[in-house]
């Protein structure tokens, strides 16, 4: 790839010598961080012969280690185990601590007990003065950690031990969510679950959700047609990434205008990744978050299986909400019928904005057609986010 201008290979667990082409050789050390075994002629990386010599040295000392040190280590750890066993019998608090560990667990490669304790302390045990919002799943708190970073913490209303049964699939999905790095997705740093406190930690984005802006006439007028088209494309890109570029694929489960944050440049950022799956992992019942019933796919009235096509349906509703400036209402019900005809564009457009130019009208008509296909009552006839992204970017 001699035409390659720049690269970023960070946090991919790669090893071995980096290529010798110009893009790799001119890259900064930040482009390679988070990889344990990369080597090459880049400032900050070890020379490749370093790793070769190191492996050779390790092999030559392996036999000596096995013969002399391993038996000594066995004796040492045996004595250490007896010591801790006796200490545990003397200290009843040790048993209580073990029980607490059994009742809580963390999900994240970088999220740990230290950050958990810092959050509890920084929010004074989730004092109301730190609360910046409430939703169907929980309350959101803004706090600054000792490291100086600002995070948004969503404290869940409840998470019962009985809900953990058979949730390995969902834990894998949430764990994958913590690895997401995408422009249009709010970063999920980690998850902590326990009988006392259960919360998710996100990057703090200094913005307002889309629903709030659309409800305010003054702010909605600032959201012109080009910005609204860009928001729709940003949400589509986020869902395309989650459905097709993540392993396992990630289903959001609660795509609404409330869960789309806009930054100062009106760039869309999907938030609340992982929350819906985390709380609705019991296939015997489905409980929709408060205030989002009118965004749920119709199949959820007779099945609890949440799929990517549920996100597609909710995306279609959000698109119409962005174009119309509010929930599509009666127009939505007519469009969701398989035999329905496309409504006139002027009946859908937000009347608070001036009439768009012919070129923008053409783009909006394409967007509305895509939204209509997303609302099909049969999920099998809805497009995938891959198909939607291709149409919107054409």
UniProtKB/TrEMBL annotation:
Q: Which domain of life is it from?
A: Eukaryota
Cross-referenced InterPro entries, in alphabetical order?
Kinase-like_dom_sf, LRR_dom_sf, Prot_kinase_dom, Protein_kinase_ATP_BS, Ser_Thr_Kinases_DiverseReg, Tyr_kinase_AS
Q: Which UniProt keywords apply?
A: ATP-binding, Kinase, Membrane, Nucleotide-binding, Serine/threonine-protein kinase, Transferase, Transmembrane, Transmembrane helix
The answer to whether UniProt assigns keyword DNA-binding to this entry is: no
State what protein this is by name.
Answer: non-specific serine/threonine protein kinase
Residue span, Protein kinase domain: 126-394
Q: Which reaction does it catalyse?
A: L-seryl-[protein] + ATP = O-phospho-L-seryl-[protein] + ADP + H(+); L-threonyl-[protein] + ATP = O-phospho-L-threonyl-[protein] + ADP + H(+)
List residues binding ATP: 155
What EC identifiers does the entry list? 2.7.11.1
Question: Pfam families from the xrefs?
Answer: Pkinase
The residue ranges crossing the membrane are 63-86
Membrane found in the keyword field? yes
